[in-house]
Design brief:
The complex is a heterodimer of chains A (about 280) and B (about 400). Chain A is built from eight helices and nine strands. By secondary structure, chain A is of the alpha+beta class. The chains are: A alpha+beta (about 280), B mainly alpha (about 400).
Chain lengths: ~280, ~400
């Protein structure tokens, strides 16, 4: 019968105690050594990174620049040129565009057009969940991918609140319908098995900065979607500079951000249509 | 050193055994062929797509790890809480745990887009990621289980010629309480972090709640030992030898029963909070959409609650039923089904509900559509074949039920 209780006698001798205490202290010392010592992967990080500033909070953009975008839902005509140019320049699979453009209805029944690149959140859920830091914040606040490091676990896609991430399910050999009408590819296709997303055309930003141009003010330094927009519904620039065009647009207009309640702090702002949302 | 191995009969290849091995062989061949196809052509062969990027394989990972929880629970009971009478089942529990964890790792390697980079989490750390923590914990815990189990392997006749292995094994065995302590800590961490994997995702209203990690660990602690108990009885049926005293198995069943009650209690309040006291429009809408698209309510009430909790609790706790080994096995298997259904429900429920981020009212992503296809089932069969093979080989060749430390 199992009802009979066994008497459990716990004897803790001094020797046992010392063994356990020694093991505990040893583990603590080993952990301390491994995390702060020269073997630690943290040892190569800068102090600001060690303090966790770049990964969380508003301060992901720690440098001189914080690239952001304003999308004017009032002027957007829904021509999809941003989607097409983006897909051509970044050689994106036409079925899984980085930029989406959709017809939308406001609560008052008026029609407007809603488009969405990656929002480059300053408190990005995708950056937080990536097990290998394959997606991370640059100093200029951009959320970028390291395609050589991504293991393809797709947790970032699950965590992204804005559906901005796409996976390469197979080797790409599709024909890009937007090339060459809307531009020619400026970056390589991504390999099979990694997650990809909008980069705000970092290749253009970085090249422009090297040659002394100012992204946001100089068209050749802008993301493809901003340049091609026929009605100027997209404004790109440095949010950290109060004199930049984007800062002035933000100051002059009421803006919203998507799913603000999540606290992801997107770098993309929307000017609502005049008829209301 | 009178080892049990000496007493073991040379095994016979009975027709039943050969048929069993043939079945395992077929499962393994299906799995291998599918695996080669997936490795060469990519995950496009599966039914997963960008809106539902996780599916059956993640469910298998979660279930296998939860079902392996008997290892840490029973090790802790024996070595830390000093209930030595459970000693005879620890070896089986650790072995089952080992099989569960290796199943999970094999499936994970299939599931990630770049299997060649499986080692990245160990080199490139993101200490903020629960998935990183889980990867580390699983690796460490697998090592712990190997350490716990090595002494059993060295008892095999094969190692008679190498006495040093026995010395090493003895030293390892002396450290069993330490491994049990470490295993307990690591398991408590990652079993609950698996729930946190979903619980922290604030973009998905169904998942985003603090009860997720608690429910995961409670269900694992309840069902892991129940699976070990059921397997012990099934092994007894198959081999015809009484391997573990039935009063011990009954006590494990009762432990699982009480743990399932606690799990059910937490689940009840979780349900009450999510759908009643703490209901929010987004969760309401999400659950509504889910029930329109899938038989979610049915799967929850019948699969998780009735089959997974209520019936096993009755079978495990009622003195009328828990004296009957067949009913204990039935209870164990139902509890296992309950946990698998739960992991499936958790994984796909959050993904089926479309993200709503547009500022307007009209545009909503289409609800997810997903059911595993032949390729995904093929891998699942292969994994099951692997688990059965390991179990069979273990029963045949390893002294899983030796308790020489008592003699």
């Amino acid at each position: 019968m199992s009802k009979k209780k066994t008497k459990v006698k716990v004897e803790l001798t001094r020797r046992d105690f010392l063994t356990v205490a020694g093991a505990a202290l040893g583990s603590i010392a080993a952990a301390q050594f491994l995390t702060t010592g020269p073997l630690s992967p943290f040892s190569q990080l800068k102090q600001s990174q060690l303090e966790g500033v770049p990964e969380t909070g508003h301060g992901a953009a720690t440098g001189k620049y914080h690239w952001g975008m304003v999308i004017n839902l009032d002027t957007c005509i829904g021509c999809e040129y941003c989607l097409r140019s983006c897909s051509a320049i970044n050689d994106v699979d036409a079925d899984k565009p980085w930029n989406i453009v959709v017809e939308e209805k406001s609560s008052t029944g008026s029609i407007f057009y809603f488009s969405r690149p990656c929002l480059h959140c300053q408190n990005a859920p995708c950056v937080e969940v990536c097990p290998v830091k394959a997606t991370y914040h640059r100093e200029d606040g951009l959320v970028v991918m390291d395609y050589d490091r991504c293991i393809g676990c797709r947790y970032c896609m699950v965590a992204c609140p804005y559906d901005a991430r796409k996976f390469n399910w197979e080797i790409r050999n599709d024909e890009n319908p937007y090339v060459p009408t809307y531009g020619t590819p400026e970056v390589e296709r991504r390999p099979r098995g990694v997650v990809e997303k909008c980069t705000f055309c970092i290749h253009r930003i970085d090249a422009a900065l090297r040659s002394g141009l100012v992204p946001g003010e100089d068209p050749s330094a802008n993301p493809a979607c901003v340049n091609i927009c026929p009605v100027g519904a997209r404004v790109f620039g440095n949010l950290n500079d109060p004199e930049s065009t984007i800062s002035k647009v933000l100051e002059a207009n009421p803006t919203i951000r998507l799913r603000e309640e999540l606290g992801a702090e997107p770098s993309v702002y929307y000017i609502p249509p005049k008829e209301g949302l | 050193m009178a080892t049990v191995t000496e007493a073991r009969k040379p095994f016979s290849y009975s027709p039943g055994f050969l048929a069993w091995m043939a079945l395992i062989g077929i499962l393994l061949i299906i799995g291998l062929i599918t695996a080669v196809r997936v490795f060469s052509q990519g995950l496009t062969l599966t039914n997963m797509y960008n809106n539902v990027p996780w599916g059956l394989w993640i469910t298998i990972d979660l279930s296998a790890i939860a079902l392996g929880a008997g290892a840490f629970t029973l090790s802790a009971i024996v070595y830390l809480f000093g209930l030595k009478r459970f000693q005879p089942i620890v070896r089986l529990a650790v072995y089952v745990g080992f099989i569960g964890y290796t199943c999970a790792l094999l499936t994970l390697v299939m599931d990630i887009g770049r299997p060649d980079r499986f080692w990245h989490p160990w080199v490139y750390w993101n200490v903020h990621s629960v998935l990183w923590e889980i990867t580390w914990c699983i690796t460490i815990y697998l090592t712990i289980m190997v350490m716990e189990f090595l002494p059993v392997i060295t008892e095999h006749k094969f190692f008679d010629r190498m006495p040093w292995t026995r010395t090493f094994a003895n030293a390892l065995h002396k450290a069993a309480p330490f491994f049990a302590l470490l295993g307990l800590g690591i398991s408590l961490l990652h079993q609950s972090s698996l729930g946190a994997t979903y619980g922290i995702v604030k973009s998905r209203p169904i998942w985003f709640k603090p009860s997720m990690p608690i429910m995961f660990i409670l269900s694992a602690v309840a069902v892991g030992p129940a699976l070990t108990m059921s397997l012990a009885i099934i092994i007894e049926w198959v081999t015809g030898k009484r391997v573990i005293a039935h009063d011990i198995l009954r006590m494990i069943a009762r432990f699982s029963g009480y743990a399932l009650l606690v799990y059910g209690y937490i689940k009840f309040w979780d349900l009450a909070a999510v759908t009643y006291y703490g209901r929010t429009p987004s969760v309401d809408l999400a659950l509504f959409t889910l029930n329109q698209q899938t038989p979610y309510n049915f799967a929850f009430w019948v699969g998780e609650i009735l089959i997974g909790i209520v019936i096993p609790v009755i079978l495990f706790l009622s003195p009328r039923f828990n004296r009957n080994p067949a009913l204990l096995v039935l209870g164990g298997l139902l509890a296992v089904i309950g946990v698998v259904v739960n992991r499936w429900n958790v994984t796909v429920s959050g993904l089926f509900v479309p993200l709503a981020y547009s500022p307007g009212t009209q545009y909503v992503l289409p609800p997810g559509r997903y059911f595993p296809n032949m390729v995904e089932w093929g891998i699942a069969l292969g994994i099951i074949g692997y688990a059965l093979l390991m179990l069979t080989l273990g029963i045949k060749f390893l002294p899983l039920f030796g308790d020489k430390e008592h003699s």
